[in-house]
Amino acid sequence: MPDFIVLMHNDATTPIDLDAWPGYFASLRTAGCFQGGSPIGGGACVRKSGLAAKVSDHLGGYIRIDADSLDHARTFIAGNPVFEAGGTIEIRGLPRTG
To answer: Any residues with CB less than 8 A from the CB of 12 and at least 6 apart, and which?
Structure first.
């Protein structure tokens, strides 16, 4: 099954219900798709030469899930506290290589 990363942006239009996270994670575990996740803290962008881009401060966290397709991955967004608070959710495929 393909892997997807769900990136949560820091642009919620209403306060995020922090108490909703355990139930959301439980629903992903019940569906058998949850592969982990975490808030995203501060950091740095580096490159071998030249100026590096600025750190993407609009990203607040990520969740990794298994899904059959992008459309299937979208079905797991309902209930996400960032999404429910009006925030942007970005779903990206994680291609398997090698």
So the answer is: 82, 85, 86, 87
Asked if 4 contacts 92 with a C-beta cutoff of 8 angstroms, the reply is: yes
Q: What is the pLDDT of residues 52-88, one digit of tens each?
A: 998 888 999 999 999 999 999 999 999 999 999 999 9
Could you tell me the domains of the chain? 3-94 (3.30.70.1060)
- Burial of 28 from C-beta contacts in 10 A (0-12 / 13-18 / 19+): buried
CA max distance for the chain? 46
Which helix (H) or strand (E) segment holds residue 90: the answer is strand 89-94
Whole-angstrom distance, CA of residue 77 vs CA of residue 73: 7
Parallel, antiparallel, or unpaired for β 3-9 and 34-39?
Answer: unpaired
Q: How far apart are CA 56 and CA 58, in angstroms?
A: 5
pTM for the complete prediction? 0.88
